[in-house]
Amino acid sequence: MTSLSAEASAAAAAAPGGGLVEVEHLKRVFDVSKPWIARLLEHEPRRQLKAVDGLDFKIHRGETLGIVGESGSGKSTLARMVVGLLKPSDGRVLIEGIDMAATSDPAARRDVRRRMQMIFQDPYASLNPRWRVGDIIAEPIHAFGLGAAGPNGEAKKPPKGAVAARAGELLRLVGLDPADARKYPHEFSGGQRQRIAIARALASNPDFIVCDEPTSALDVSIQAQILNLMRDLQEKLGLTYLLITHNLAVVRHMATRVGVMYLGRLVEIAPTAELFAKPRHPYTRMLLDAVPDLAMSGRARTPVGGEVPNPIDPPPGCPFHPRCPKAIARCRTEVPQFADDVACHLAHDDPNWLAREGDPARG
Amino acid sequence: MTAPLLSVKDLRVEFAMRRGPLTALDGISFDLAPGEILGVVGESGAGKSLTGLAIIGLLDPPGRIAGGEIRLNGERIDNLPPEAMRKIRGRRIGMIFQDPLTSLNPLLRIGDQLVETILTHTSLTPRQARDRAIALLTEVGIPAPERRIDGYPHEFSGGMRQRVVIALALCAEPALVIADEPTTALDVSVQAQIIAVLKRLAREHDAAVILITHDMGVIAETADRVAVMYAGRIAEVGRVGEVVRDPLHPYAKGLMAAIPTLEGRASRLAQIPGAMPRLSAIPPGCAFNPRCPNVFDRCRIERPPSLAVGTRRAACWLYDRGEVPSPLKEAVS
Amino acid sequence: MSEIAAELPKPEAKSGSFFERLKDSDLLASFLSSKVTVLAGALTLIFFLAALLAPLIAPTNPFDPASNFLIDSLNPPRFVAGGDARFLLGTDDQGRDLWSAILYGLRVSLLIGVFGVLLGGAIGITLGLIAGYAGGRIDSIIMRIADVQLTFPAILIALLVDGVVQALLKGQNREETAFGILVVSIGLSFWVQYARTVRGSTLVEKNRDYVAAARLIGLSPARILARHILPNVMGPVLVIATINLALAIITEATLSFLGVGLPPTQPSLGTLIRIGQNFLFSGEWWIVTFPSITLAALVLAVNLLGDWLRDALNPRLK
User: Fold this and answer.
1) pLDDT, tens digit, for every residue of B268-325?
2) A222 Cβ partners below 8 Å, 6+ apart?
3) Which ipTM score applies to this complex?
4) Which residues of A touch C15 (CB under 8 A)?
5) Which residues of C are less than 8 Å from A127 in CB distance?
6) Does the beta carbon of A257 lie under 8 angstroms from any beta carbon of chain C?
7) CA distance B332 to C77
8) Which of B31, B134, B169, C15 could hold A129 in an S-S bridge, CB 3.0 to 4.6 Å?
9) CA distance A151 to chain C (A)
10) A44 CB burial (10 A radius; 0-12, 13-18, 19+)
């Protein structure tokens, strides 16, 4: 184990209620103004894109939190902030109580980095085409030193044979042959590359993996293989997942809890079965209705109107109100607070609205 | 039985590669009735897009049609010279591509693009063409069409653009529309809208549709019949309800079982081992045989033709006698 | 359309080790298919070998004053009336065997050209990587410097560098410093093209997921640039380097011709041409002719090779 600094261990000890990952008031704003000369000449103000606008949630150890959303929801931005690739504009991300952006202690930062990893969407872009597969998988091992540390907290150089052996072990774990370590990424199919990406993610023995649309670029039959693999690994290694996707069926299958995002806000979060059976936010309901029905049960579908508005210029009040079939006057002016796991005036005032609708939701 | 609108028999498409010709489509056969929606579904590499391109004559070299025939209303269209094919394109066959961003010319107003197509293929005056364009925009659900007809593509959202593309495909009143992944680049909530628009317009304009997609859910909602493709061949074709609920071909069975549903958190998704073979490495006999849970010797040697099973057809030796045999083994979990 | 791309037979391998790619590639086939290119390649190879083996091939060492006898000066080539059998292509005004002088001059020209390109490449690639990856102000500064530099013709820069160094060294032995000055001048003149191209490729690559994966494990930017991005942006660099080589050789020849290049005691091809020019109208035509033909042939061959390389690599760069 690495030696944590006093500051880090104090923070870890203080972490309340078991949240492996805690996200507090997370915001991320992008400046999309035109260059200053254009603004000067055209008298235009600065323009901001609120990609993520105040997110609060916890991820507990061992669970899979699914975040669903469409384009403009901010879910990819969220993924990158959680994992440290993007700095939040406001708020913080705590991994086991430690805020990586605020800690200056390199040993603590390295320790946090070691614990989390990411699987990317595009299996063709997430592996360096000029590197051999074995080197790709071994890179985190070299960076984090197989868990051992030198006197200053930097990674102790592991013996060469040990690294190769571990890489081979990881390949076997994801269903590939250790001899594949000599090959280059282009020699593998999309599904196999995603397995390699998973092997790389496991190389540093992480506790927590952020999966950003891990199967969106894969065919259905390959998707099934990868999802099964991910669940097997979760069981075997005690992993915690944050699963970002737009595919509701995938999230239904994989997640224990689901959060729904719309225009940078979390509108609802609930255990999976509950969310799908009794969605409390009209947007969630609309999403569920929009999924094409493979079972062909011939259910009546509420026609859906409109599209996700431009995130640079969101509607006032509740961002969903222009498309919401249940919008009231308040929705146009007041932004609903996220309380009781949902951000909707209707849900706050009238928790049983869905039951009264009469349309049986899915079980 | 009315004569089919489109009849594809034994279509073969080859690519001339440095190492020799590569067969990308190997004996595709299907019929399309007027006004029918046929789904062509398959995973990447199966050849579904190529089928669409071959029919509309947009195969770029080194690809070429190497065999078989394509008949539209009884006349052959696969061997026409480029000039003649150009006349057919747009007037009798319309096409919708996947990416609405690149299907529309960003420098032209959408009204101009619509009017241009209408004028090319009909004998209306420019005034009439513009009216017709506005009418079409109303049909596909663009609000305030008289104003928006003069807009540029970048002023429309993704879903709106795709509606314009649908209008464009239908403006010359083609009898056949080929839609290649029309909803893949769109958000889920918009997909449903676009599917509804496509379906409604096809019925109203009496156009048959070949709907190419990898999304089985879209097919289940939209199509009348479906053809499941695998490695450049058709594995199964039949009425959508039958194929989706009770697939015959082991690949189709495996595919349906692998799709996660909204119903529940199953312990595992059924998965098909291995992956679709590269076109340069298709095994002898049935292309699916290395992955098939029901494989037997004949499958490895002889390629199964499309065998009739009731109203459906399946390219599988299990149905040699034209009936479903006793319980099939499930795909390996 | 991406569906179609997925379904078409995949193009030849674009990754893997250099030799693997080369062997199995369209590149080799494309090279062999064009007679002009094969000829250009062969010619370039011959020139390089001749330069490399000059001490072994040349009958005399023209740089060694002891082996030149003024009495032998201005002899016409062997095959012309009045020629001396010892001198294949005649001699120049110093009594140097022209054939040997050309071989040694070729050597010097190529050496300076290659080192100049290497220096320019090193500066350009480094600055391009930094500008592309860092973005923002650093990028702007580097690119503005590049823009400014482009307004100066290469010869002017070379003259400038030469003048500055001469002033600093205050007339020190020109022979020793000339080589270095020329390499530095050429390097400084040509780095911009590398920088621009590499910056463009870096801008693309830095947003790709494999770079994100490397940042995720906490690698330093320098490490990411060197180990991850550099291998992926080298493709266009090769093309630029080849075409630049021809340009570098010409630049050196021009400088020597103008008198600010190599000294007459260590003549490059350019120097020889300059010397020969003085004798052209007095009848000693061979001193300017043979070096000129050699220079022209060399530059043409390298240019053709570069042209082919650029076209052959182009679709694969997309």
Assistant:
1) 888 888 888 888 889 999 999 999 998 888 889 999 999 988 889 999 998 887 555 5
2) A189, A190, A191, A194, A215, B43, B275
3) 0.84
4) 129-130, 184-186
5) 210
6) no
7) 85
8) C15
9) 19
10) exposed
